[in-house]
# Entry
Amino acid sequence: MTGASRGIGRAVALALAARGARVIVNFAHNEAAAEKTVAAIAKTGGEAVAMRFDVADGAAVDAAVKDVVSSAGGIHILVNNAGVAVNTLTLGAKDADFRRAVDVNLGGTFNCTRAALRSLIRAPGGGRIVNITSVLGEGGSAGQAPYVAAKAGIIGLTKSWAREYASRGLTVNAVSPGVIDTDMTAAEMPAMRREEVLKTIPLGRIGTPEDVAHVVAFLAGPTASYITGQVVRVNGGLLM
# Structure
């Protein structure tokens, strides 16, 4: 589970642990937050361990996956959630803005999947990959082109991998959250803007990390074995 130290990632980690998964809580910088996720899982009787690595670093990902396979015996579920928001108009964008958005959001998803594939296709009952994209990757957003491009790319990877590995029993799906109440959203959305956004959501509320987590956990479970190559929207009707 990449990017599992807080927000959607933490909620997904808790949901998977509640269903019996042993969770690897990946983080890049915030060790304290990752340990809080581990502690929250342990408090409910689950099992988890924190692991630091940057998903944008292919060599670091390969080493981490080898460690997990060696210590846990294999990887059955991969949730690619790690990401960074990059807000910039294209005309004023720096090369580094685009590269970071693509390297972490899209490249990280590719790196982790490539490293884990051999283990996933050997998973009993079929492995599961769930990639976290975004409503912005489907509908676009002014001032966030690098982020949007990366999230749209994740949808392409999802559909390609679903076709490549269906014969091995591996399902690959994406979950596309809308506006979700996380630290990142709170930091980037002042109260006035929040009220404006609420008016565009048919269900009339901001989503919670748990709203997303329940869908991810379903797709990662045995009852979703006939679902692959899909993008499941969790957005309150914001995009239909």
Remarks:
- The radius of gyration is 17 Å.
- The CA atoms of residues 99 and 146 lie 8 Å apart.
